[in-house]
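Morning. Coffee machine broken again, so started the prediction first thing and wrote up yesterday's gels while waiting. Chain of 221 residues, entered below exactly as on the submission form.
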Amino acid sequence: LPDPKDKVGVLTTYREAVDLIGARQLDAGLKKLREVLDQSPDMIDVWLQYAAANTRVGRLGVAYDAYREVIRRRPDQGSALLGASSVLSGMNRIAEARKYAELAIARTPAEAHQMLANLALNESRFDEALRQAELAAAAAPGLPAPQLIRGISAHRRQRYAEALPFLEEARQAYAKRTTQVNDLHFYIGDSLARLERYPEAEPFFKEELRLYPQNTRASAG
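Came back before lunch.
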């Protein structure tokens, strides 16, 4: 291993990158992360942050390559497998996304089954989506995956009044967890808007944008 004294500059650059990303200066932060990786390509956490930040700015191909780099170095890295699955889903490469999610089951079963539920939703396979959501909840008691999937399934079928109780139950449960779900607040806002409950809808669109500033559907809403 290298002498830590020789890596002080790398650590300084890394801290600068984290601060920039925290301040939502994503392009500047990504440039700093790339500098770190060019000097220390074995830093797995930096690859993961580089992939996540590229996902936030919509560079899914670059993000996928970064996740692939992590998987090449650590084939059982669950977050990299799930990250690769997520960006492939965003690129509409569903079959490939499913393979990565299935590989992640052994390491992170709840998150992997949640990903498989989302992929099934994208194909309008609602029964399979609910089955995977229930497996996710079984792996992590208290995870409101079934409520989320029921709510989104009803929304996709344009049953907005039916969707709202499930989505609200999921929102309240996720509020107690450290990880939030992409699009949950959007679906609540959109359901309310389609029911012409506009003043109630607006705060949910704004909350979605606070959590995920690149969510164009929330911006449109």
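The longest helix spans residues 8-22. Going to sketch it on the whiteboard this afternoon.
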